[in-house]
Design brief:
- This protein has 154 residues and is an alpha/beta fold.
- Helix content is 28%, strand content 23%.
- It has a 5-stranded mixed beta sheet with strand order 2-3-1-4-5, with helices on one face.
- Helix 3 links the parallel strand 4 and strand 5.
Length: 154
Amino acid sequence: MSNECNNNSYIILGLTGVGKSSLCRVLSEDKTIKIGEQTNLNSCTVETSSYKCHFQDFNYTVIDTPGFLDTRGEEQDKINLLYLRDYLSNSAYNIKGIIIILNFLDNKFHKYHEKSLKRIIGLIPLPNFWDYVTIFFSHTYCSKKRNLEEEKKK
């Protein structure tokens, strides 16, 4: 027996360019989801969208969001937050988890993460908000110049 998609929704958050849409594309197997390119640093996702996913007998929905520190500026960040608030308040999705994606190569947790997360905590009606959070790291690949163990130490 499969679960209903709207009973299992996971919202994906993070800075612009960390791979939120890429994760949605992989999980949903929807090749039409537009993703940014490493050579183009402009914000790609401009609105909150949801995608149905299926794994074995488990149906769920992932919710892709515009990134924090949108390349269009601070005013756009405020607009994105309003859109996210409206989306969450008007949707039938029952948030079961929050996925925060961090770029593994960034060596710090941006103050902007903290500021944005504080705003979002009020939008998602979950008791003990942090109990629902999973941190994913993107850009964990290694190159000849970078060694994974060296990066962990940093």
